[in-house]
Fold this protein.
Amino acid sequence: AQKVTQAQTEISVVEKEDVTLDCVYETRDTTYYLFWYKQPPSGELVFLIRRNSFDEQNEISGRYSWNFQKSTSSFNFTITASQVVDSAVYFCALNCPNTGGFKTIFGAGTRLFVKA
Amino acid sequence: DAMVIQNPRYQVTQFGKPVTLSCSQTLNHNVMYWYQQKSSQAPKLLFHYYDKDFNNEADTPDNFQSRRPNTSFCFLDIRSPGLGDAAMYLCATSGSTDRRAEAFFGQGTRLTVV
């Protein structure tokens, strides 16, 4: 079975704090893709990053960084020096093209509150 | 500029009265998706089109139908909305033929059933 678990339902931080959003995935496929999306109050999901199962390099994009570890089936997302505009729901997602086709499985999401 | 546009943003319909939600895209993507997202839950895939090929998820109720008359437009028809169908409906597109591409989402249509 394929599954994405985001154990943190809500996180609240004060502006400028660093925050890490956890994501654990399950799949038996060897080829898969992991994603993070941001859903601000306006509603649309905004793509942040894609990682494939053969590339474990961590990635940094501005204040955002991602830590992909196959050994623990985790794909965690860190926001450095958080800002109020980072307040949103963040979804981790998994696609297994060989068995799941176009279906992307989303985690339940983590709601991040950043207070000024 | 918005690339995936959903209309309307808010829709109120009566219990049992058919309703249609629309989605258009300017990306010329060959895959279009419809997701249902209930409050504080993850988006749940209802179905998707790969070009004209329709793919229904096994647990999508028959009450939900879809049409894709051309590459740019896709419609979600709810034949007899029930109170449990109140949700945000998200349309998305992706352009890859190898299924790995990220999806581009519209802003969603929030459906209320009264």
Q: What stands out?
A: Chain A is about 5% helix and 50% strand. Residues 34 and 94 of chain A are 5 Å apart (CA to CA). Chain A has a mean pLDDT of 93. Chain A touches chain B at residues 33, 35, 37, 42-47, 50, 52, 91, 95, 97, 101-104, 106-109, 111 (CB under 8 Å).
